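ingest -> validate -> predict -> emit
validate: passed (alphabet ok, no gaps, 573 aa)
predict: started
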Amino acid sequence: MAVYALTGFSLVSLLSFGYLSWDWMKPSLVADVATDPMEKSLPPAFARPPHIIFILTDDQGYHDVGYHGSDIQTPTLDRLAAEGVKLENYYIQPICTPSRSQLITGRYQIHTGLQHSIIRPRQPNCLPLDQVTLPQKLQEAGYSTHMVGKWHLGFYKKECLPTRRGFDTFLGSLTGNVDYYTYDNCDGPGVCGYDLHEGEDVAWDQSGKYSTFLYAQRVNKILASHNPKEPIFIYVAFQAVHTPLQSPKEYIYRYRSMGNVARRKYAAMVTCMDEAVKNITWALKKYGYYDNSVIVFSTDNGGQTFSGGSNWPLRGRKGTYWEGGVRGIGFVHSPLIKRKRRTSWALVHITDWYPTLVSLARGNLSNVPGLDGYNVWPAISEGKESPRTEILHNIDPLYNHAKYGSLEDGFGIWNTAVQASIRVGEWKLLTGDPGYSDWIPPQTLTNFPGSWWNLERLTDGLRKSVWLFNITADPYERYDLSDQRPDVVRTLLMRLVHYNRTAIPVRYPAENPRAHPDFNGGAWGPWASEDDAEEWEGMGEPLKSRNKKKKCKICKLRSFFRKLNTRLMSNRI
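emit:
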């Protein structure tokens, strides 16, 4: 009964929270590209390689943009998307590191060893050094490359840093989340350090500046000092709107009527980020880049619903393989697009940006075989069919196995206890534990009730390890067809088996106490020597199993530093 009640509520709410149309009568924040004189004179191939601006936001929910019906104000994003191409069949990964690694390498995380969790600050781990990155390919094509914002692809040795992986300049944080003003990050009680870097140095002098503004200002400075006749690639990975929920007071005041405090702060952060994008767009126009530019906007994963985000009407949240965790906000804005002002339903995945952008830059892809991404520019610019027909969302052999999964449930070819998900055509399959599975409306009310959110999960799914949905007909994942279509289940399981045969071992080494900021001048940064790097290179043994080896030298070293850290903390207190 609880299931039907919740489903009924959700369907009614879906209508009441329906997508709203934008008011086209308001003046645009960016130029009307339809009247751009370049539009009629553009040759079939670009006269010169375009400037590429890739904007990635952190933890922004699918619902949390104006053109998806949100009550959060995002006028810049709305207009850029409306005047470009909205990607409404666009997929990302459910958490930070996987999305960023797939963007930078064009490969599924099973092909880089990063298929489990994120890279944690104290792990001797980073994006594999044998991977040729997107900025490296653009450098080969003659581009100046710059990164501003959140890295989160490892930093335990200098070779892992952004400036060693293809970026000419870098301003941002290396870890997963920092204070927006102080840039402090704590990876557990007492394990805190400063994390804002300029190139390979700690940027102590920038403390106190709100990161969203700081990053937009840096992009402005880069554009002002570069020659617009030379191609440039800028990767803007905003920290916003990841926790902690912090925003300048004037933005919070705009949402003072919102009763839910987390949602109010979160909304302020989204709007602040939107204005930062406006300033970047303005700089592109001011300094002569805009007419030959391509702006790509993408979120990195689903919103965290308990921290103000909303993925409504999709199911699930950040960290899950439901649509709410993996379907992203995405659009492309450019005067170079042939068919503008439209919505595209072409299947696109975050790995596709690598070959797409390198191809736009007239770069060479012949020496990077085995990419999982496709060149989707014809689908975006001309409305052609997407070359992509399937997406491997992931296979994670280390994630907690589902209690009721088995090889028998997987027709003897796949252990359904293993967390995995794949999309083939209109069908989507999930096995193992996909994660928190409810539909959560935007939290706009004071003390919004949370007890009923779990009703559907409590009554449906406790004894399941296989789900099948027709995503085209059922994008909200309400009707599990696994029992009705065992033939489709088997077919998709075979695809998982195929991909799993190509997977490399998981890279998820144990944390090392030498990474503690107290041993690095109070800041997070590279800490491994060359000898250490050789010792740990390629180590992929799970953290849990490695912690059992109490007699190893590293374990003894860890024990020593724990005791030392305890003394240091005692002195602080």
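The mean pLDDT is 86.
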